[in-house]
Design brief:
Blueprint (H helix, E strand, L loop, with lengths): L1 H8 L21 E13 L6 E7 L7 E10 L6 E4 L5 E8 L5 E13 L15 H6 L14 H11 L5 H15 L1 E2 L15 H7 L1 E2 L1 H14 L4 E8 L14 E8 L3 E5 L1 H8 L9 H7 L9 H6 L8 E6 L20 E5 L2 E3 L2 E10 L2
Parallel strand pairs: 7-8
Antiparallel strand pairs: 1-6, 1-15, 2-5, 2-13, 3-6, 4-5, 9-10, 9-12, 10-11, 13-14
Helix pairs in contact: 3-6, 4-6, 4-7, 5-6
Length: 363
């Protein structure tokens, strides 16, 4: 089974190696199917001359099959699709002299997602060579909110001890991150996430959401020469199946190891399962909704699982930070695109809402 998973991984740019610690090797990867609805409502202020919106659409890879994809706009606006600077397929509309006070975009599709199941042997990889470092240069760059400075470099050395093996170094960074940062949902009265997903904020406060966690993982990883890319998607939680609520978004990391390819990890979920969380009326629902399979106390097997594996209850919306759209936006790089980015008369607007819902389909 590990050999088959490895071959499948090579077929996709999102491919990964394999790590199957507590999963029986003879069991096939899990699979789940969903009907997904993503409704985006953009508010249009009076006097606006042009509204432009770039919206996330489901990405396909070796583990995601999208069917019956359809987008409707509540007026006669032309929808375009193009690739952004990270290669994500993105939907786009522009409206000159809008006559309505809002624009409604509704996308629907069916998704079949397969579990990413792998076995990673650190002895099978090695440090990047010069050719690989040049080819992967884009994944070794910091971003506006993923900072690499002297403090980060010092932190990286203190965590990894200068370990040259990318798998072993990444595992040290993973372990340090989930042990030293607390997901804000554990104590929502005293902890909070940054609004942008910031490595500096996460390092200073030792708390945040999934993007803060993985920004803090990415900064020292980049500084030690490990290529990384942040993946934005949503968890398809059983607890929200069929419910008319916004199921929000989630992000995780892929890092590159020569001879193994792109390997996934989810340090923020590892933090949820690392130790028992005292549950109360303030945090119980938030903790449950942060997971993809439910929370039943500390689970060390899940901590191991989320270094190299991903559950099947996910949809991928985009990858990367500091995105440049096509056609290009006016108001600087887009921090990330898990939902939608809107500009009104050339300036970014946050006056929009999103409702993401889904219903699990029988296999």
């Amino acid at each position: 089974m590990p050999r088959r998973a490895f071959v499948l991984a090579l077929l996709s740019a999102l491919s990964v190696g394999a790590w199957a610690l507590d999963v029986p090797k003879t069991a096939p990867p899990k699979q789940a199917s969903f009907h997904i609805s993503n409704v985006l409502t953009v508010k249009v202020p009076k006097g606006a001359k042009i509204v432009r919106a770039w919206f996330a659409v489901p990405q396909e890879d070796a583990y995601s099959v999208v069917r019956n994809f359809n987008v409707n706009v509540d007026a006669d606006y032309r929808i375009q699709y193009a690739r952004d600077s990270w290669g994500n397929r993105v939907g786009y509309i522009d409206i000159e002299s809008p006559t309505r006070d809002q624009v409604l975009v509704k996308e629907e599709f069916d998704l079949t997602r397969t579990e990413v199941r792998n076995t990673i042997n650190a002895a099978d990889t090695r440090p990047l060579n010069d050719q690989e470092r040049s080819a992967l240069a884009a994944y070794l760059q910091p971003a506006t909110h993923v900072i690499v400075n002297d403090e980060i470099r010092k932190l990286a050395v203190s965590i990894t001890g200068g370990e040259p093996n990318p798998v072993l170094a990444a595992r040290k960074l993973y372990d340090w991150t989930y042990k030293n940062v607390n997901y804000w949902v554990k104590d929502p009265e005293h902890l909070k996430a940054s609004p942008v997903g910031s490595s500096e904020y996460c390092l200073r406060t030792r708390t945040g959401n999934c993007t803060d966690f993985h920004s803090l993982f990415a900064s020292p990883a980049i500084s030690t020469g490990i290529p990384v890319r942040m993946v934005y998607g949503s968890l398809l939680k059983p607890t929200l199946n069929g419910m008319e609520v916004d199921a929000s978004y989630h992000c995780w990391i892929q890092f590159f190891a020569p001879r193994l390819g792109w390997l996934p990890l989810d340090a923020s979920l590892a933090n949820i399962y690392w130790e028992d969380i005292p549950l109360n009326d303030k945090n119980k629902k938030l903790v449950e909704l942060t997971t993809s399979t439910g929370y039943h106390g500390a689970d060390k097997a899940k901590v191991e699982y989320y270094f190299g594996n991903l559950d099947e209850r996910r949809v991928v919306w985009s990858m990367g930070r500091d995105l440049i759209m096509q056609p290009p936006q006016d108001d600087g790089p887009v921090n990330s695109l898990p939902k939608i980015y809107v500009e009104i008369d050339g300036k970014q607007s946050a006056d929009w809402t999103r409702q993401f819902t889904y219903k699990e389909l029988a296999q």
